[in-house]
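To whoever is on call:

I kicked off a structure prediction for a single chain this morning and the downstream step that reads the tokens threw a length-mismatch warning. I double-checked the sequence; it's 104 residues and nothing unusual in it as far as I can see. Pasting both halves so you can look.
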Amino acid sequence: MEEYLYKMKNLVDELSLASSPVAMGDLILHTLNGLDAEYNAVVVKLVDKLDLTWIEAHGAMLSFESRLSELNHFSNLSTQPSMNAAQRSDVSNIVYHGSGNNCG
């Protein structure tokens, strides 16, 4: 996200230097329109705000991305124990069946 925001701002700065300035509101709208569907919540929140600054939009988008990251991390943690239990179960079955074959 940080790289995307930097590229968008840099593009507007370059256009401004080339005597083709872009309004800050247009920068924000184009930036929001370029986000994936997983960012719809932050897009809806920001798109209707009047007098939104680039700094505010930038901060909101980074905060939202951070929250998505946290949710994905916690989601991965909650599935990890069941995966470990399944792996242990498979190993114990192999050991049990293997020792049974040696006895008979």
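Update from on-call: the warning came from a stale cache, not from the record. Cleared it. Sanity check on the structure: The mean pLDDT is 81.
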